[in-house]
């Protein structure tokens, strides 16, 4: 404090926190928050959180811990702030609370007259993951902020089961077989997946390129020609074995042909809806700590994540439901160039019907996100 200033301390407000689209107040009913989650703090009705409105520099590499005369403390740690106003504060839950079951949170407010007030501290339970999907403002359930994810038609082959020497995994593309026999040196399904990817990509005349999905053991087949011309390339998968008991690895083509090219990066809107079978990208928070270690070590509280782009949460997004049908999760991970924002790529079920407010959510283990909506329009069959 400078000379002549004064300071008083009072319990001026009770914090209300929102995360994963749930609003809760007080320690007994506070939202369960994962490390790295973006959290919003609201005051109770009739109370305020500071005197100023201020926003962190969107081009800065990190967020400040003091903004507009406001500080927020979790377990005595000043946390990074992206936005403050008398009615809202946006912060990030520190990654450092990973090994903590709860934190005590309060707001410190420095007023223009030199006085300082503190909110009542509340307890916030901490969990390893608890997803929340970003959506537009409005009445619940709100429309998701989603993007068309691929300008090329795709199909996906799923690998499951266990490794057994003598089993053969086969992917068939437009009638051409690509087979890999499991070796004694193979230690995981990743080895089989990567071998199939290499075999497919070794053929320069193949109609698709192959890549590994960022989550689960899946091969993504992407048409080399953009647009609808890449739709309809047939895809199959299977397994065989020289072992009398039969194959223990299982390959499944999740689509019978490549499908659903769109315009990558275009917003999904009512005028530009998603279509059944296509890839969409959504953005979330609360997916928790990421792996591998090279990525985990770059995820710093309040600082822009610089990569690597190929990362995944320790607890995978193991369930995604759109319109009551399972959407294939092809990738989930912390988004380079962002703070606390994760990207999730989903492949919509091809049998979805038209609904401008199709409900959807994602889940990690027992933790389910907020419900949002997405406009979906199924292709209309041509008139005979």
List its salient traits.
elongated; disordered N terminus; 4% helix; 30 strands; Immunoglobulin-like; 384 residues; 3 domains; five-stranded antiparallel beta sheet
Question: Can you describe this structure?
Answer:
This protein is mainly beta. The chain has 3 domains: 11-127, Immunoglobulin-like; 152-253, Immunoglobulin-like (Sandwich); 262-376, no CATH class. Helix content is 4%, strand content 41%. The chain contains 2 helices and 30 strands. A hairpin with a 2-residue loop joins strand 24 and strand 25. The longest helix is centred in the middle third of the chain and has 13 residues, at 189-201. The termini are far apart. 42% of the residues are buried.
Topology:
Blueprint: E1 11-19, E2 22-25, E3 38-43, E4 54-55, E5 70-74, E6 77-78, E7 81-85, E8 88-92, E9 102-110, E10 116-120, E11 122-125, E12 132-133, E13 146-148, E14 152-161, E15 167-173, E16 176-181, H1 189-201, E17 208-212, E18 218-226, E19 235-241, E20 249-253, E21 279-285, E22 290-291, H2 293-296, E23 312-313, E24 319-322, E25 325-326, E26 328-334, E27 342-347, E28 355-364, E29 367-368, E30 372-376
Parallel strand pairs: 1-10
Antiparallel strand pairs: 1-2, 1-3, 3-8, 4-7, 5-6, 5-9, 7-8, 9-10, 9-11, 12-21, 13-21, 14-18, 14-20, 15-16, 15-19, 17-18, 21-27, 22-23, 24-25, 24-28, 26-27, 28-29, 28-30
